[in-house]
Design goal:
alpha+beta; globular; about 300 residues
Length: about 300
């Protein structure tokens, strides 16, 4: 085979491989996910990761996440990624091994049935953490995947914690019954308001939600209130940091105007670093333009 022919054959092979890369994303997107809530959550989460990696040009990981999405969406048994499935940097396997153990133990306590949305979120974010840790060149993405995993695990722990055993005690003389105390009214304690693109102005719907939060504050009287501002990935990271701060400050103004003490408010602008929905850089996403208000 002469040099020109060999070069032509090699070039053709490379083009063929490039054409195949990322094809699993198309296959996964065609799946009509059914089945239990946990499997549907896995499907949606893995599909988001596949889309994100495809947008970054990482077709190998995009295909891997897309195949996991397809398996979950078609009734397959998809477990958290094994520790030895990735070439992890030295010194990083300990935290990941412990995290996977916690997740599997939570499954043993029935997390997939009790709190399926957060169980699916935890598994998807664990696999995201594994993938980003293997690449080991985007520390913000590593931290984001880990933080999202830990947040989901905290919700799982609260929902699946076993009731504390009550030790038997000898019977005691019963005192006269105390006057009945009315139960403390139940409040949500967690609120999310959304914003228009490139705006820190509140919509009518957002003001309704803040009015409810103000009313609930007067009932619950929390020790503190965390106000966390977020932005989508449209615009630069520096600009989005400022925009998320402006949104948090706008919410602060409304809460203080509703007689919530300013000293109880903890403002935390997060910019574009903690999206509800993963998107490529520069893409607007309504769900990521938000402020979260949490009673603590």
């Amino acid at each position: 085979m002469n040099m020109i022919l060999r070069t032509t054959v090699a070039a053709t092979a490379m083009l063929s491989l490039a054409a195949c890369a990322g094809m699993e994303l198309q296959n996964a997107a065609r799946v009509s996910a059914a089945g239990p809530d946990f499997e549907r959550g896995l499907y949606a989460g893995y599909l988001d990761l596949a889309e994100s990696e495809f947008a970054e040009g990482d077709y190998r990981d995009s295909d891997a996440f897309a195949m996991r999405a397809t398996a979950a969406g078609t009734g397959g048994d998809v477990e958290p990624e094994a520790i030895d499935a990735r070439r992890l940097p030295e010194g990083t396997t300990g935290d990941l091994t412990d995290a996977r153990r916690q997740l599997v133990e939570a499954y043993g306590r029935g997390a997939r049935q009790t709190i399926p949305d957060q169980a699916a979120r935890a598994q998807v974010m664990f696999d995201c953490w594994m993938q980003e840790q293997e690449e080991n060149f985007q520390p913000d993405d590593i931290a984001r995947c880990r933080a999202d995993f830990e947040a989901a695990m905290a919700r799982i722990a609260a929902a699946t914690a076993p009731a504390a055993p009550v030790a038997a005690a000898p019977p005691k003389p019963q005192p006269a019954p105390a006057p009945a105390v009315p139960p403390k009214p139940d409040v949500d304690g967690m609120y999310i308001v959304f914003f228009e693109l490139d705006s820190a102005e509140l919509t009518a719907k957002s003001r309704e939600i803040l009015n409810q939060a103000i009313a609930d504050y007067q009932i619950a009287k929390p020790v503190s209130i965390r106000v966390t501002g977020h932005a989508d990935r449209a615009g630069s990271a520096a600009y989005n940091d400022k925009l998320s701060a402006m949104r948090a400050e706008m919410v602060e103004q409304v809460l203080v105007g509703g007689l919530v003490p300013k000293e109880k408010l903890l403002l935390q602008p997060r910019g574009e670093r903690e999206p509800l929905r993963l998107t490529p850089d520069g893409q607007p996403e309504e769900k990521n333009r938000r402020v979260e208000i949490i009673f603590e």
